[in-house]
Amino acid sequence: MTEKLYHSIGEVARMLNVNPSVLRFWETQFPSIQPHKNKKGTRYYTDDDIAQLRQIHHLTRDCGYTLDGAREQLRLDGKLDDKMQLIRTLTETRQFLADLKEFL
To answer: pTM surpassing 0.85?
Structure first.
């Protein structure tokens, strides 16, 4: 993803276009999300944490899953990362082709 080892909750919230409170809530609902916290309780997310949050975001916002459904889907589908990467690649390709069409 990036060269940074840790990202603040604000940075991650901007990446996913959600409020920081959503990330804190998801942390309570998905045990696999455990950001590092300093002594003051400030959360710091790794790239792996962000990848999991992206999956949750995709399932709940794009696919319409409930939180229970998203938990079940994450449990069942270990290949969700591959599917999300394919979707990103197709989206980027579509944008590239649209830009190319405008250019020509």
So the answer is: no
